[in-house]
Predict the structure.
Amino acid sequence: MQLSKVAPGWLADLTRAVSQARVAVQVLIAICAGCLIALAQPPFDVLPLAFLGLIIAGVGFLAAQSVRQAAWIGGLCGLGYFAVLLHWMVEPFLVYPEQDGWMAPFALLLMAGGLSLFWAAAFAAAFRMSSLAMLCVTLTCAEVLRSYALTGFPWGLLGYVWLDSPVGQLAAWIGPHGLTFFTVVLIFIPLGLAHKERSFAALATFFALGFGALILGQLQDSAPLPEDRTKTVRLIQPNAPQDQKWDPEYREIFFERQLEFSRQMPAVDLIVWPETALPVLLHKADDRLAQAVAAAKGAVVILGVLRQDFWGYYNTLAVLGPTGEVLNQYDKYHLVPFGEYIPLADLFGVFASGLAKNYGEGFQAGPGPVIVGVPGIGKILPLICYEVIFPHEIGAVAERPDFMLQITNDAWFGTFSGPYQHLAQARMRAIEQGLPILRVANTGVSAVIDAKGRLRHQLPLGVAGYLDATLPVATAPTIYSRVGDWLVLVLTLLFSICVLWMRKRFSD
């Protein structure tokens, strides 16, 4: 099928020109489309570029002459998207460049190339169905699949481009994949109508969808939040650069810095230190735990620490009692491949980076997402670093917590894009669940985020300090917190049935 021959209008002329262009030009167009879409993600946040990039990707799809060509267009678009989005992935390998630097370009290319295969498959499947409209479904399904497959990596989902717009509030109803589906429908359906010389219908559809979503999002955003709790929290940010964090000459400095911030007046109810805040393993940390509690002057202390038992090492969050004893603990369950454990260690051990290379084959995983009780504060859902990017796992807990608590060490991710993308995803989790989240980062950005995903308070990246704030209150459970990703699967199924029915009707 040659989709470029459907209409003789300006769009058909454009698609024909693209289809007849040299291969090098087609490659460049597809990659640039993906790059433009990525520029709508933090730290750039230029939303119109996502629209432009998706339009170019849609034109490329319309210009494709075969399934193979469509797959190449989708794959190259994905390659551009993920290469720009994930360029921070070179940063962990540059912490110790003399040792790991050579792996940096390979890591980025392999990750971007691997994720681009999902987009390639989406474009190929939609072309087989001869439908730009079905690309809305297949591309959404591709984003869902990469969120689950092989432990999943839902970083930078397309729907996140709406975070700082009222439309982002619709994540409370349809979740991140629903926002992805809306995004591609907003662009591809009007584009398909325009390609069939229905320009007025295309414009009307675009504006109707856009304004409708904007109004609904504004209504969701304007719903009042409950009054904050009287409990006060202190978030501690020591700002330990990764190349100094475990250095014997510096680690005591960072530990003392956390103690000093904890001692400051006025007194608070809860003090939180970041991931791996202690410079020693938990079973060797009795004195340091006692110091942390003493500095807190009666406040509950939660901190990150590494621990060891017979089975191996764990990345742990510990809730301390009044004498420094561990009242409750949580072990990170969703570990970072190659960063915290080494899949097929005998084969891939040479590519290990981060903490994993220092602990044999890496860390052991905890039992899964759990609710942890904090005396005098309430129930929390603890998240350590990377765990915050998995919306379906956060929604898997049986009991609703009072708030989420993320401790993290974003020093691995540089200072340009990685930490800000990580923060954005934490904000999206708050919207989806209707739960506030306390985010405590070693180097930043530490923040108090309310149940609408808004930044109440924050400590900037690269600043040593602390912030005190009242604890926001959760909203009523959201639709997404109740049904998860099932709703978007139903929506895409109904959309597919509608598209196929209409095509059959108008073809008869």
